[in-house]
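ABC-2 type transport system ATP-binding protein: structure, please.
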Amino acid sequence: MDSPAVEVIDLVKRYGGATAVDGLTLSAARGAVTAILGPNGAGKTSTIEICEGFREADGGTVRVLGLPPSDGSLRARVGVMLQAGGVPPAVRCGEWLRLVSRFYARPLAPDALMARLGLTDHARTPYRRLSGGQQQRLSLAAAVIGRPELVFLDEPTAGLDPQARHACWDLVADLRTAGVGVVLTTHHMDEAERLADHVVIIDRGRVVAEGSPASLTGAERQLRFRARPGLALEELLTALPTGSAAKESPAGHYIIEGQVDPELLATVTAWCAAEGVTADDLSIERRTLEDVFLELTGRELR
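Here you go.
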């Protein structure tokens, strides 16, 4: 179908006198991975919970697979992974997954799914005795076992070790290949850059940028190096080609943007030598999604 898996138009959500979501508009395509990024308190969790049907909007329109989130028929078509909760503490891992599978007409095989996510050895372990990462993997398994058309993943790799994180990434990639729409929130910029077809960055309840990871980061390359803090970058800029930019972020870490070519590289290293500075860890890289995220949302703690 050509219609989006999720369509949000002018969404508003208030908590008392505070507006968490302020006229937000976004869409997520079917059969694609859409990553929603934002600082703490940006409104992304409220937006996702409204789409999942757990909260009611104060304004705007939300459609999930063409239906309002409250439509009961969505339960068999949409998978939801919560950050925490929803599982009885005493239930055993394997028992819970088999129970969840019985709510669907064509579920995935619980044992195979547990094996894929490294839970086989914990099949008889009560939920409360699972580690945080194991509980996270069980929640992921429960979200996808019903072969959903759309799945919401809220911080799917939070607390996972590298092996489990890569297993989760592989599962998300397979969901996309199978035509499942995936909407995920994450604080890992490398995860969004690796998995997402479309990225939506929100801040203070509004969309501040969206597009593919490549379109957001651009083809522009950067020259990066480390040196003592507080170099006189204004002086360096006078020696660089017109249109270049230089910044120190964080202290002692320098980024030069512009037409990164041998001439620019020679100019920077010669200037550092004239200043008696050694440019450590000098490298040429492209701008990352984390760079874009910080430029748009700021560096202050929330």
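Notes: The first strand starts at residue 6 and ends at 15.
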